Amino acid sequence: MVADDLAENGTQEITDAFEKGSGFDQTERGAVLAQVEAEKRPALIRAWEESEKSKAEIKAYKKLAITGSWENTQIASVEARIKEIEEEIEKKKAEQAEKIRSRLVEIHKETDEKKATMEAKRGEDIIKVQEAAAKFPATGYVPRKLLGCFGSRVSLAKIDSRRATTTKFLL
Q: Comparing C-alpha atoms, which of 76, 7, 89 is closest to residue 48?
């Protein structure tokens, strides 16, 4: 395009010079035309080269734009999937936390029930001991086991005899 304009302008100037009759003869005219053709060829080659370069740049630009668009689409897709996974994880985390809290409540409830049962049993045992202790003076019975929690069978008679011997030595 540009080369055609340049070639036409150069040829036009030479043609104008011939028409004015500036004194060129046929041999000079042929040499001038050959020179114009010689100059026209590199100009056409340069113009073709520039045209092909611009086509290649436009093609590369389009491919880069398509690639960039594809990349953005892929990134958006991956980010959306990551967000979904994070939401699923948060949901599962909340569910597991709720299960654990529920289990803690169950444990506290069971513990309270066991404590209440043990307190009731302890109260019953204390009442039984108190009732038995209340019957001893009336029946005259002296319990044979004392300090049974230590696994020894110490009777009150032995304790009384030990006290008596200890007091004899002290007197």
A: 7
Nearest C-alpha neighbor of 31 from the set 18, 46, 44: 18
Task: Report in angstroms the alpha-carbon separations of 68 from 55, 57, 76, 79, 105.
Answer: 20, 16, 12, 16, 55
pLDDT in tens, 33-53: 888 888 888 889 999 999 999
Tokens, residue 137? 């003076």
What is the signed CA dihedral for 122, 124, 130, 134, rounded to 10 degrees? -170
Phi then psi dihedrals of residue 133, to 5 deg: -65, -35
Tell me how crowded residue 3 is: count the other CB atoms within 10 A of its CB.
20
Question: What predicted TM-score, i.e. pTM, was given to this entire model?
Answer: 0.43
Distance CA 44, CA 47 (A): 5
Distance between CA atoms of 57 and 64, rounded to whole angstroms?
A: 10
Rounded to whole angstroms, the maximal C-alpha distance in the chain is: 172
pLDDT at 6: 45
Query: Quick one: DSSP state of residue 23?
Result: S
Q: Find all residues with CB under 8 Å of 43, minimum gap 6, and list them.
A: 2, 3, 6, 7
